[in-house]
């Protein structure tokens, strides 16, 4: 169901970060994102936030907070040095030259895009942010999780199956066998196999341990994978990579070839929305606790102000406890505040306590990262000077 724009105006919508791809047009660089991705994200009720492929942006990603989801899609080959395979194994220089000639538009490494996308992928892994990787995005996810890639399928796998056809780019399809009892199998109405498009000369070689395959090409190449421990859209969990492009699997009438193509984005946005709600709920809990604590603390302070005369016995006891008559109000207020907080926490449900704990852990990580950056900055400035 498409969400009408007017219905969205009054809502705070979840934000999905998408990194742009850089290309040369009329001798000038242009950043772009495929419009199909943007249409599908918007139509299911989220806001796509485009992260430009600009030098240094990977160190400024905190400025894009709050991040409720990340979608990474097409782009150039991932830098081989990032997964510890710096040379094509067993290939001659002639083979390497041929690969660069056949796939000239993809073999130019973009280290800045790699940095941006790997930083985002690792952030999602650390903070359980919903993540969907399409084509290159699935390869980035596998590398970020400790997996490796084939740097050229034809040369390394020796397959006769075409995974890219420059003469028939948009219409090229090949069979993909779906693995039972996986999200992909469910979305595509439990079909044994589907015909998928294919625009790549690289692919997953060693799948990271946390992932489970969802689809295979006839030559054994993995066409889709996910983390079963991080998949529950209603609870805001989603971690998945697809080698093919469901957003582009359309007929001449622009209709999708399978309903499952839409389900990929629908379930991803559902997870993004649930993740946002959890974040908001955790924030509301913290704000509510702060509000109650402040109100009760002020009322306690007023009571203490009204009764400033302490008995000799009270004064001596406060001194023994490390307080003085001067700061006794502050000390007593802190003791009272602690008791109020403990009572307030006891009243919260197990779920709300879990959400609050998740929020504080997230805040602790953010503060830790900020401290690390501040500690590094002076050293950087010294090096520059």
UniProtKB/TrEMBL annotation:
SUPFAM superfamilies for this protein: Class I glutamine amidotransferase-like
Pfam families assigned to the protein according to its UniProt record, in alphabetical order: Peptidase_C26
CDD domains named in the record: GATase1_2
Entry superkingdom: Eukaryota
The protein's name in its UniProt record: Uncharacterized protein
Natural source organism: Eruca vesicaria subsp. sativa
Upper taxonomic lineage: Eukaryota, Viridiplantae, Streptophyta, Embryophyta, Tracheophyta
């Amino acid at each position: 169901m498409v969400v009408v724009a007017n219905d969205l105006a009054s809502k705070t919508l979840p934000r999905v970060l998408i990194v742009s791809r850089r290309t040369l047009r009329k001798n000038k660089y242009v950043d772009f994102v495929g419009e199909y991705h943007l249409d599908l994200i918007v139509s299911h009720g989220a806001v796509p936030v485009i992260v430009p492929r600009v030098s240094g942006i990977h160190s400024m990603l905190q400025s894009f907070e709050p991040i409720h989801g990340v979608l990474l899609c097409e782009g150039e080959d991932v830098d081989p040095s990032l997964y510890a395979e710096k040379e094509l194994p067993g290939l001659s220089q002639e083979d390497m030259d041929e690969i660069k000639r056949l796939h000239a538009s993809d073999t130019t490494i973009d280290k800045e895009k790699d940095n941006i996308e790997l930083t985002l992928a690792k952030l999602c892994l650390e903070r359980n942010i919903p993540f969907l990787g399409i084509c290159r995005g699935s390869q980035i996810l596998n590398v970020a999780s400790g997996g490796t890639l084939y740097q050229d399928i034809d040369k390394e796998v020796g397959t006769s199956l075409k995974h890219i056809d420059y003469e028939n780019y948009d219409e090229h399809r090949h069979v993909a066998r779906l693995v039972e009892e996986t999200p992909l199998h469910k979305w595509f109405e439990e079909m044994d196999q589907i015909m998928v498009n294919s625009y790549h000369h690289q692919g997953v070689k060693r799948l990271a341990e946390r992932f489970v395959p969802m689809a295979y090409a006839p030559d054994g190449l993995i066409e889709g994978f996910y983390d079963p421990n991080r998949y529950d859209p209603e609870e805001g969990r989603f971690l998945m990579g697809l080698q093919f492009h469901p957003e582009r699997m359309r007929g001449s009438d622009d209709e999708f070839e399978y309903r499952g193509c839409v389900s990929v984005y629908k379930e991803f946005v559902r997870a993004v929305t649930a993740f946002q709600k959890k974040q908001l709920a955790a924030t509301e809990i913290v704000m509510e606790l702060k509000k109650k604590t402040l109100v009760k603390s002020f009322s306690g302070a007023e009571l203490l102000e009204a009764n400033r005369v302490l008995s000799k016995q009270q004064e001596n006891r406060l001194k023994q406890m490390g307080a003085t008559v001067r700061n006794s109000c502050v000390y007593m207020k802190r003791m009272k505040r602690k008791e109020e907080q403990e009572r307030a926490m006891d009243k919260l449900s197990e779920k709300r306590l879990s959400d609050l704990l998740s929020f504080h852990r997230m805040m602790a990580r953010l503060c830790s990262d900020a401290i690390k950056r501040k500690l590094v900055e002076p050293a950087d400035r010294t090096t520059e000077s």
